[in-house]
Structure formats: C-alpha cells, structure tokens
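Discussion board: Methods & Data

I've been asked by a reviewer to show the raw model output for two of the constructs in my manuscript, not just the figures. I'm not sure how much to include, so I'm pasting the format here to get opinions. Each protein appears as its amino acid sequence followed by a line of discrete structure tokens. Is this the kind of thing reviewers expect to see in a supplement, or should I convert it first? Here is construct A:
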Amino acid sequence: MKVSYQWLNHYLPLEQNGITPTELAEKIARTSVDINDVYSPQNGLQKVVVGLVESIKDHPQSDHLHIAQVKVAEDTTVQIVCGAPNLVAGKKVITALAGAKLADGTKIKKSKLRGEESNGMLCALQEIGFTDKVAPKAYEEGLWYLPDDAEVGAPVFSYLGMDDTIIDTDVTPNRGDMLSIYGNVNDLAAIYALDNGFTSHEVVENGTERTADLIKATVADQQLAPTYKLRVIKNVHIQDSPLWLQIRLWNAGIRPINNVVDVTNYILVKYGQPLHSFDYDRLTSHEIKVRHAAEGEQFTTLDGEEQTLASQDILVCDGDRPAALAGTMGGQDTKVTDQTVNVALEAAIFDPVMVRKQARRLDLHSESSMRFERGINPETVEVALNEAAYWLSELAGGEVTKGIVTATEEAVQVTPIELSTKRVNAVLGLSLSQVDLVNLFDRLRFASQALDDDRLLVQVPARRWDIAIKADLYEEIARLYGYDNIPSTLPTGTRTLGGLNERQRFLRASRHVMQGVGLNQAISYSLLTAEQAAQFQVNPQAGQPMLLDYPMSSDHVATRMNIVAGLLIDIAYNVARQVDNVALYEQGRVFLPVAGQERPTEEEHLAGAVTGSLTAASWNQADDDNQDNQVDFFTVKGIVERYLRNMAVEGEISYQANHDRADLHPGRCADVLLDGQVVGYIGQVHPTVAKQYRVPVTYVFELNLEPLLQADKRDKHYQLISKYPAITRDVALLVDQKVTNAQIVTAIKEVGGPYLKAVHLFDLYKGNFLPANKKSLAYTLTYQADQGTLTEDQVNEAFDKVIAHLKDQVQAEIR
C-alpha cells in the first residue's frame, strides 16, 4: 500500500516529534510490515514552476502548434511553443523553464520550433512523473490546470501533492489492517506512544425520504456476506473532485474519476473498507440480492469484458439481474456515469476465500478484492458508509436519505486472551511487570484486566483479527517493546556433543565422492512438467506423478519422481551457451505417490548426467585425441562402481542389461542391483528423448539411496601396501560370444588364491580369423604377497588352477 506521510502527519504529531519519513519507514519495517520503497514524487524534477498563460496565437508554420506568452515570475514573461489541444489563455499551467529536468531525465533547453523561439515547455501530468494509471483521464492528452490561487513562479510540487513522501509498504496476508490509513495510524500511535488523532465525519441525513422505502436488500446465505448495508444519496451533481481529494488518491496510486467514485476510493484508502456505488435509477427492481452465480452465468464487468461465472462466485444482483461481482468489480449496466443523479451506496464484508478464488480465476485483482481477501474490520463498516455519505453530501450536494438498509450484520466481537506475566518474560527473555504489560496494551488500545498478581485478561478488538492466541500477543509485546531492546543472552541447556547422525554422514560423504570423481553439483527444480516428472524412474511401476492444484507455471506442475530430468534441463542450458563438456550430479528427494494416501513417499536419490569429455583439450593433446576421451557407457559405469566402493556398501553389486527402459538407449542401459534388488540404473539417454531435451549424446545414472543407507557397510581399516615385488601372468581365452567379462572375472577370482591382487582385461578381439560365434579376451593377472617374495612355483601353481577352472566353467580355450 502507498502510504502518504502527510496524511499520517494529519492524524499523528510526526513532524512535531522530529520523526522524518525515512525514520518512519525504517520503524515500520522493523516492527510491522516490509517496505518496498520510500520516495517523493518531486524527486529528480528541477525548475518546474507555476506559469500563467497570458496570450496565445497560432504558429505561422504549423496547423497544430501555438505560441504562448507565459508569465513565470512577477517581472518575467517567456515565449513557449506548445501543441496541447486544450491550451487556454488565462489558465495557470505546469511550466518547465529552460534548464529544467523532467521525470524521464529530459533536459529542457532554449530552442526554435519551426522558426519560432521556445524558452521552456508547458507540461502534462505524465511529463512530470504521473503514470497513466493515476493521471485523470480527462487530461491524458493535454495540459493540467493548476488552481487559480497558485502563485506564479512558485514550484508546482506543493499544489500537486508532489512534496509529500510516499512509503510503499508490502503488507503480509495476516496484516490486512495495515491496508488503510486507519490501520497505519493505530499501529504507529502504539509504536511511538503518540496521541491518536484519527477523526471520522458524522453523516447528516438531510433527505426527507426513508432509505427502506427506496431499496431492499437480502442475502441468500450469510456466509456469502456476513455484513451487508446500503444507503441512498439523491440529487448528486457529478463533477471533478476537489484537488485535495485527487491528491490523496493519486498519491495512493488511484486515478481520480469523479466526485462520487473518488469518495468511495478515498474511504477505501482511509478505512480499508471497499464501497461500491450503483446508479440508483439504473437499478430496475431496487431490490438487491446477494447470491451465488449459476454455473456458466454471463456478466459484463466495468471494464467491458464479459465474464463466464462459476457456481462458487458471489453476485450482487438487481433483482435477478447481476449488478456486481461481489468484492471484485462492478457491472457495466449499473455504473455511475456523468448522467447519474441518485446513488445507492454499498458497504459489506464478503467471504474472503470466495472473493480470492473468483478474483484469481477471472484475473480481476483490484484494490477492493485485495482487502476483502485479507479481511475487513467489522467495527468500521457502518462508520465508513456514513462518512462516504457525508462526503457525497459535501462534495456532490447529495441528499442523504434517512436510515441504513441492513441485510446482514455480523456481531462485532472481541477476542479474550489470558496471559501470564511470568510466561511472557520467560518466552521473550524480559523482566516486565504487569504494569508494563498494561501500558503496552493501552498503547495498542487493547482493554486489559488484572486477574491476580500474575494473570492478565486482554480483550483484543475486532480490528486486529490477526491476533487469536497467546503467541500473537507475545509478538505484539516484543515489537512494541522493541526487538533491539531485548537483551542478548546465551541459551541454557544440557551440554551435548554435537555431530552428524549416520544418515547425515552417509549423505555428506556421498556428495564428497561425486565431487571427487569430477562431477559438479547441481540443484534443480523439484517441480517439472507431468511428462518429465514421470520419466527416468528407478522403479517404472511407481505410477504417475502428483499434480499441483495451483502450479506456478506450465513448466512446474508435478512433483518429480526422478532427478535425471532436471539434470538434462541443466545440460541443455549449458549446451545452448556453447559449453560442450558438462558433468553434473544432484542428490535430493523424489516424491512417489502412494495409493490411498494424500502425501507421497519421499526417497533420497543420487543422479548424474555427463556429456562430452571429462577432460578438457590441452596444448599437448590433439582434437582427435580428445574425441577418443568422449564419455561412454563404461565411463559412467566406472563412476557408479567407484561410488559404491567408496561408500563401503556391503553385499553383491551386479549390473544387468535392460532393454525395456523407454527413456534410455535399449542397447546401452543396465540396472544396478544390490543383492538382486534393483537400486538404480545406468545408460545413454534415448536419442528421441535427447532431442526433446535438446541435448547431445548424454549418459546418465540414478541410484535410490534408501536401500544403500539400510545396507550393511564394510569395515574401513588401514591395509598395509606390500613392499614385495608383484608377478604377472597373461592369458588369452577363446570363448563363446555369450560369455561375459563378468563371468570370466568371477571364475578367476573363485580359485585365484590369496595372492591374486588384480584381474585386468587388456584386449578384446572379434574377427574373421576366429571360429564362428567366438571371441578372444586377454587378461593380465597380478600376484603379490604381503609377507614375502613369491616364487615362480607358487605363482605357476595358482595360475594353473585358474586355467583349469576357466576351461571347466566357461569352456575356454587357451590361445
């Protein structure tokens, strides 16, 4: 909300107490609500003064320009060329002198326009910083006329309210009371312990007719409108509002329209109470009904747009005909126009949830709907209605009919809360007495009563509907006492030895391992499209992702069931910016729906995605060599193997080819199994899927860390590195093509003996020089003893056992 410092100062002695706008804004930010900005509308403007147009003549070289003689001081008249269509002699206008600086940074210089000298510029409101949103529509293409009593040559700022300071507050949903001058005055009076000088105007019912004889009102369900009131003001004269009222509105960010509409907006800003004015003579039945809309019912709003309504929308109807969308926007057929004579004025409280839903669905957010959504003060509904009637009488010459038509009225209730002085001090770390608390509540204008030496009963008024429990009062006490005044103390408690639990240690070590193998950590959105969220699942039978009721955007509608999709989006972002070598990992949670449960199951997963090369090209490495270092399936498999080894996971780790994962290449994909249970996968992203994500050839993996966390872990202890020489033996085997490397390595290790340290595959050959369906694999076996030097006989004996076992197990032929 844009809060005027001068308006606040009208009710509170701010200047008298030396409270500057900057200090006030800082205080509000520290104690009440956030501040977006603090500014003065005159900032950046120079040499903009009141000018009197003394005479006008047509420009001889133009059909739309005029030459004006403008008095800018008692003894100074300058010539200015102007093209405004509403330029009139004898009017006082906004004049930018030569050397002036305008809101957009434009500097005014002496110049010639089509041969005629021009020593300044006559300005519209927009040219001195007024936005189109607040500048009066009647003057949007021409000059703004200043009051006749404006002093020629004086700066224009005080005449336009531009010498004010605006504090733009960012009101949180729970502090709807701060969306009004009334709420700000109450809060600041309590914070600074100032006299609250807020005043209201009592209406004088100067009409002869009774309101109840002119209009009726009914509410179908009191939940729709807990409070609904009407007044009628007859014989109003529609005209521009006085300048003081227009200044109040445009400094609040609202465009002045006419005196009737402006009064309702003035009351909205002053009290936070939205009002709506109907043209009484355009109401056909004079019977107002508040009801739910029919599903699909059509209604044309003030902006001329036809709205299709839902059954939960709230309508204010003229008989059966819709007249306004309650709490959101009025209707085209019953709006106040320049021909309006009689006005029906509405003040109400509408259901905040329904108003929010309809405003959001129809995209009709307004100053009124914002306040209805956050709550309305029931204490001031009738006060605001009466003051609006007062101003319509004063400014529009209206006759206020006798009485108020009330369809519903919610009782104004206080909220009793019992406090303990000892408990307050214990919670806040203070040493306040009961008298101190009473004084603080008096500043808030909360009635309080001592029940005994410790207990205090506080009556919270309805205007502070955000306060309902003891903790809310603790907050009020703390902010009035001053957060900076609360003493700093160290917390007390039993001494405990800090540290990470087993799960936390595992997850931290997991990230360290990934960084150690050369991958960079990424953090991606946990919300994706429904298609992306369902891809790359460790368990493809997990089902469909959970969808959000109100997603932020079309790209973030479902909770992720995998992490790989987010990493592919990250890779696409990098590749689009000419980063060809990308190696990322992410550790985080996925959300798996459970049938019959509202909330999903959360699992900790680890995923990686790599494209290009893990090593960058250098001066001593040709481009062709770097092409040989491109990541492939076995690179990523090695990363996973190293990870599982470093994490000391006990149990049998195996890899099994899987041709059925739709998102991965059918020939380059394998499941990762722990003791026969699938805990993850490795593979190349399917080319069609890679095309969708706009990524090149990319290899990915994803592991479910939950079974790894539960698995037994190997003991980690120091192993002495043998100082004795190692002996190697090479062997080339001819085997069937169906025999895998894993089968051969397993067979070797089964009988390798205690001295076998490593088995390394160094050659694979398939070609025309071998029998059909055969392949040749060559291995190096490394033998080494920890306590002595091996002899040839020991190594030969162990090696012969391996050869015999391979012949028996995989029918290998020794080449």
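Construct B, same format:
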Amino acid sequence: MNRLSLLPNETLSCVPQEAERVTLKALLTFSATDSHEWGLIRARQLLAGRHRIWLMLGAAVLTVTLCGALLYHSMPLWEILLWMVMTVATAAAGAVRMALTPARAFSHASRTDIRQTAWNGLALGLVLSVLPILLCMQGKPIRALGPGIALMLFSTATAFFMAPLALATTAFLLAFGLVTASCLVLTGAPVAGVATLIFTILLLTICMSRAKALAIIETAGLALDERDETVSLLLREFEATGAHWLWEIDGGRRIVRANRQLAVACEQDAALLEGMPFLQVLAGPTWDTGHFAPGLRTLAKKLKARESFSAVRLPVWIAGEERWWEVSASPRFDNRGTFCGFRGVGSDVTDQRASADKINRMARYDALTGLPNRLMINETLSLAISETDPAIGRYAFMMLDLDRFKAVNDTLGHPIGDRLLCGVAARLDALMGASGTCGRLGGDEFAVIIPDATDVAGVETLAQRIIDALSRPYEIDHHTLYIGASVGIAVGPRDGRTSEMLVRSADLALYRAKDAGRGVYRTYEPELHAQAEERRLLEIALRSAIERDEMHLEYQPIVDTDTTMLQGFEALLRWRSADLGDVSPAKFIPIAQETRLIAPIGDWVLRTACREAARWPANVRVAVNVSPEQLYNPGFVAMVTAALANADLAPERLELEVTEGLFLHKGHGVGIVLDRILKLGVRLSLDDFGTGQSSLGYLSRTRFSSIKIDRSFVEAASHGGREALAIIRAVVALAHSLGIATTAEGVETEAERRIVEALGCTRAQGYLFGRPLPVEEARALANELVTTIIAA
C-alpha cells in the first residue's frame, strides 16, 4: 500500500540516473552496456530511423539529381549517370533493409542491430564521396561549387534528421567528410580541405548532441511508461483482490465516492457509507464511548493538521470482530490552493499483525521452556529500573546456575536434559507468583527479576526457596535425577543503576556461590568487583607470560619410602610477573584453565621439563602434570613425541600426571590418547585419587604406573583419622594387587612419613624430603652420589 504512493517518485528518479549513463560510447555501442533499458532505447532509435528513412531516400534522390543537372556539361554523361545510379541504389538498399527489419527489433534491440545500420551509412558516404574524387581529379574546383553545396546540405540534413541512428550517421559523415577533405588537400586546396574537415566535425557534434538528447527523452518516456504500467497494475490488483482499497474524504472529513472495496472491507453498503464521518466509521462502537485507540487519535491529529501520513495502524470493529487496518493519505487542494479533503489507500493488516506478534513472542520467549529469554529479561529489568524511585526504591536481580546438569546431559543425552530444563522452568515459574519474573538466559542459566526488593531479607528467603525447590529429585523417563542450583543476588541501585551493571554484579555473586561449594546463594559485595578486576589483570598478564619469559619450573623430589633414595622430581610451574610479582599457582592455574591458556602453558612445561630431565642421571625421572584440555587435543601425542625427541629423553623417564576429573567427560577419545602415550613407553600417574568422583574402572582400563594419594588423607591419617586410614589402606591394597606404585603427597613431618611407610606407600614427596627447588639446585641434587635425602 505504501509502495503505491512512492512508485511515481521511484520511477521518475531513474531518469537522471539513465541520463548520466547516456554516453558517447553507449550511443555508438562501444561500451558493454546491454541492460533491458538500453535494449528499449535502441529499439526506439531504430523505429525513429525507420520513420525518417524514406524522407532521407527522397532527399538523396533530389540531391543526386541536382548534382547531375549542375554537372551535365562538365563531366561525361556516363560518369554522372553511373554515380547517380550507385548513390540512389545504395540509399534505396538501406531504406529497404530498414523497412524489412524484423518487428522484434522495434521492441528490444541489441547492439548488433544498431551496428548493422552502420554499414548502410558507411556505404552511402563512400558512394557520395566518388563525385568529389572525380571533380578533384579534373582539377577544376569551380565546377564542384554547386554540387558541393548540395552535398553539404544533404550531409547537414542527415546529421539532423538521422541523429537517432548515431552510429550509422557517424559512419556516413566520417566516410564522406574524410574522403572529400583528403581529396581537396591532395589536389592543392588545403584550405578547402581543412574547412571541409571542420564542417564534418561540427556535423558530428550536432549529431551526437541531438542523439544524446533524443536518448534522454526516450529514457524519460520509458520511465513514465513504466510508472503508468505499474500504477495501473496495482490499481487492477486492488480491484481484483480487495486486499487494498482507495478512500477519499472532503474538507469536513466525510466519505465521498465510497467504492466497492471500501464497502466490502467495512461490510456495509457503499450508499450508506457515502457522507458518513470517516473517523466514525473507523471508531465503530467506541465512537459513542469516547475510548479511542491511540492509532485513531494519531489519525485524527493528522487529518486536523492537514498533513500527509503513512502506515498509520489502528484497530477497527467490523461485524463485532476486531480487525487492524493500515491507512495512508495525502491532502488535496484545488487550483486556487483551497483545501478540499484527503485521498488515500488502506489495507487490512490483521494477519500481518498476528504474524508480527508471533514473531515478537518467538524473539522474546525461550522456545524450550516458554520462559522469557535473555532479550525479554534485559527489557524487563531495564523497565523495572526505570520505574523505580532511585531514592527510596529497590530492585533485585538473581542469576541461577544449575549444579551437576552437565553430567546429566553427558550421561543420559540432550533429550533428557531438555526435559529436565522444562521441569526446572516449571518449578521456578511456580515460585514467582506476582512478586517477580523468571526467565532462561541460555544453557542451564536462569534469571529472576524482583521489581520491588525493599525487603532484602525476603529476597534472600526466595533465593533459598529456589535452591530447595530445584534440588528436589526429578522423575524423568524412569530416571531419578538430582541436581542443585547456585544463586547470585544483586540489589539495585546499590549494586547497579543500569541493567548491565546489575547483571555483572549478580554474575560475580554467582561466581562466589560456586566457589563456596555450590547449592548456596551469595549476595554481591564490593570486594567481588575488586577480585574480578584482579582476575582480569591476571588474565591479561598471563597471556604474555611465556613470551616475556616470566614462567619457570621448580622441581620437588620424590623418594622411596623404604630407602629414601631419590626416584625423581615433580615439575611445578611458577610465575614471577614483571608487573604483579610472584603469583601463586592457586590463583593463575584456575584462570589458565578457564581461559584455555592451560594448553599452550602445559606444552611449554612439558618441553622445558624434558630438556632439564635429560641432564639428570638415567635413573631419575620427571613427573609433569597435564590438564584435560591438553589430552582432549588430538595432537597431544605428537607433542609428547616431539618433546622427548628434541630433548633426547628416554620415554620411560617421563611420567605424566592426570586427574580423575579427566574421565568425567565422555566423547573426547581420552582413552585412545592415553593408550597411545603408554605405547610410547611414557608412564602415567593418577593424581589426587579419591578426592573427586573416582571409579575403579579407571584403574582397570588404563595401565597407570602410580597412584598419588592426596595430602588431605595423609594429614588426617597422621592424626588418627579412621576414615583416612581406611581409604589409604584400601588404595594401597588395590594398587598392590594391580602392580601400581603409590605416592603419598605432602609428607611434612616424621610422623606422617612413618604412617605412610607403615600403610605400604612405596613413594613419598613433601617438605620433609625437600621443598620445590630451583632448576640448578635440583640438577645438583640429582647428580649427587648420595643415598639419602636430608630434609630441607
């Protein structure tokens, strides 16, 4: 509908664009222009030439007759007659050829069709130039004065009337003018030759100017034709489909000339609509009550201001059913400038509006759970902030993250995981009531908005109720599933005056809740921002730590518990930042894991440790911790092979320590990678056994050379902890039965050494046997010929 009012301007706007494209090369078909518009322009050029060709044939006959009469007593009769016959025959051939041109050429002509006319012009020009050649050869230029004037007049007429066929006319003028000028120069009349050449150039200029002007006129005519055709087509479509209609009102805003389509749209008789107030027809039942829709008020203001409007949407009631119309119109004025009403178009957009509402809902609601999505949550939060008095009001935002959800997805599959998310959404929505809005941010993250959070204690109570509700078991496809939730709370305006700040604060609080062991809620505190800033700075510095040579390794001895003989060293990563000083591994290792910097750092550690171990005695091994991220890399085995080869280190002297968390992620091919490492001859050690979600299946599927018992068990066992003692005994017995060595970590006292020795641990490491040593001290210790390590 709006397009109807724009079409005339759009169509006419193509005229200057086409005019800019009417160049000399395009007119002479030397450019690659072959658009549909140029095909139509060429066709009209051919048609114009066809209309004038018989006139030009008559002019040619008259010209050669006049020349023959003037030269009757000056040249042999047979030469005159021969030239006259050749000229008339050439002109007639061109005329007949144009007359016999296929009809298709006059509807859409190609460059080839135009170029074919050039041969006619060239032939005519060459035949006409025979007379000047003959006259110049006789050496009596005075005889050529009369015929020359006749030929010049004919050339001028050709340049003017045949300008639409610019290429043919140019060929004619160049052939005739250049030959005539050359003859005059060669026969001793250079001035006349130059004058002829200048005259020819002037004719060519006239021809090109007129040809371009005619082409521009044709372009404008095509644009107008296209506009008229398009408008007519749209009007016929309006009449045929009834989807759009025309309307007109007078200066009193009453309908005039009500047409059938408008009557059908209103489901009334056209005669009854005639003279009715237009606004009353649109208002329907609300005309009496005065409760007008905003769209109708907007339309009334436009009509009162007598200004054009477009795409004004408003609801109308037709036969008791609400419909949506879209109307556009422009004011009308008579010849004296007096306002006489509006004329416009309208259409029923009820279906389009329903589709738009559906699309809007899809854009703002989560397809899986039906809860508001991230976009809707942000909009709702921004609205809550804007409507709250910053002086006395409060609003809260909670960010929720499901605990152990990924394990469900990995073990039972995404369909079960999706149904679990729907169950979480249902429980969450049931807790909201009128107090807040919940939504899904994506994945297993949810959010809750509390517009009125004046009662902060009530917000915290709601957070605990959410945790309790989401932690109850779920029954899905005969599976009893247990998950939990961690919640971060931010209360504005204290924790943020914008939605972005509030979300960031809640996210930091959620991070703190996860660090606290999950299944709890935490509120935002200012120091969380400082901690986040510290983590950001650490991450930035960590990304360039290796390139800046800030990383180094220290080596902690591992000894035999019976003989205290040195068995090897564990390589421990240390970072001394130029900007931040010594950074604890407890700080930067988690950051490296989260940012996936652990892989390149781990590769550097592996290469460095292998190069250093190659300097030790052949019976001293080096243990290197590797992260799951490294083992998930298909190229990790190649990296290990390259590190051993570059350091010239025997594979059995390298021991890779992995954690049991590695086996929690299926589908990464970890077992295949470990088998390939074992085939190289490299040893494997299972680190921190018993502290996570251990499974004896790991030990049966993978040939570990040792199991490392965590320091927490060693310390508890030295203080008589029955559970720790039982665990160590069980681990040692299991390892002994499988032929696997056991290494006790964190042995710091003599009592701890005696207990791990008594429990059967074969190896130990800790401060009792040696602190992590710089590379030079570790190298010296490895090369000492001693049998006992003295505690540092």
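Answer (T.O., handling editor elsewhere):
This is acceptable in a supplement if you add a one-line summary per construct. For B, something like: The longest strand covers residues 321-333.
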